[in-house]
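My current task is to audit a protein record that another person submitted. My question to you is simply how this chain folds and whether the tokens agree. This is what I was given:
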Amino acid sequence: MKQPAILGGSPLTDHPIRLVRPVLPTLDTMLPDVSDTLATGMVTKGRYLAAFEQAVAEHLGVAHAVAVSSCTTGLALTYKALGLRGSVIVPSFTFMATVSALIWAGATPRFVDVDPRTTNIDPDAVRAALTPDVGAIVAVHNFGNPAAVDALQALAADAGVPLIFDAAHGFGAQYQGRPVGGFGSAESFSLSPTKLLIAGEGGIVATNDAELARKLRVGREYGNDGNYGSEFAGLNARMAEYNAILGRHSLDQLETAAANRNEYADYYRQRLTQLPGIDTQHVDAANRCSYKDFSITVAAEAFGLHRDQLARALAAEQIDTRAYYDPPVHRHAAYAAFAPPADALPHTNWLAAHSLSLPIHSAMDRTTLELVCAAIERIHHAAPAIRQALAD
């Protein structure tokens, strides 16, 4: 086994392996639509936006798909349109936007723990946190792994509160054979370049609630009710025609992207779990993960290095990684006032310290996957020397 680069050996690759790389439609496929938009001058609120929304609704099997400027504005408008007040149950092992949108809407986050195997919100923790002042439950399909939809919907129904899904990673994911998107009161998706379905920037809120969809459409226009008044305090959350065109053509590639990422994840899982101390996110056999990210956990005692040491060693091999979500949201300065006691979220804190996302794109070659795995293997075999080098 060759000497790892962090110990003075040559990197396994001469070309950096990036964590993400968007796979986009070709210019030739998009050019007629873009040319038409330029010729007509209709660059916003036009027919391409309507066509994109209709295509997404059909793909997800929902009544309404409302395009917005980002997943974050989609969440914020959903929270606002539902009139959320009081405490809202939410995980802390998530991207900050899940929670920042709650604050903007005037609600108070109540952080609960996640299942360390799935990395998603734990229904038992939700049940324990349900009190009369809870106004809603927010769950996340983390890394594209569908949350425990049935259990969460039952809890929300029993409590008489809305259930909202942050489905930022959700395009390409399926829950028991159905695309995520039609569960709970609404699901908000991201279309940024790190996702499987890409519009450059943008988001989609999917719902089967006609009144909620109407409010979202009003809300993305500042709350303007059409008479230059304001039904409620909304946002400028419109999606431009160019983004809708890119998204519509990207939708044609979505199923291929999801299939490819599942194939790559299977390869990673089969090879890396042979190493002591390496584990992967559990996905229920009835579900499909989008694998927006492929995340491992690193147990230092068995692997020989802790997560951050492995990340440094991979960086020396020119392999990008990302430690999601460290720190978790409840430890961000902006949300310290809402943080529970230090020992209240043990699984969240453990995942934040041990989780590492590896490179995954929608079109990777086998050589790249092999290089990432080979780098981790040789780093493991040289772990004592790497620990000593880093200590020195």
User: Anything to note?
Assistant: The two ends are 23 Å apart (CA to CA). The CA atoms of residues 1 and 378 lie 6 Å apart.
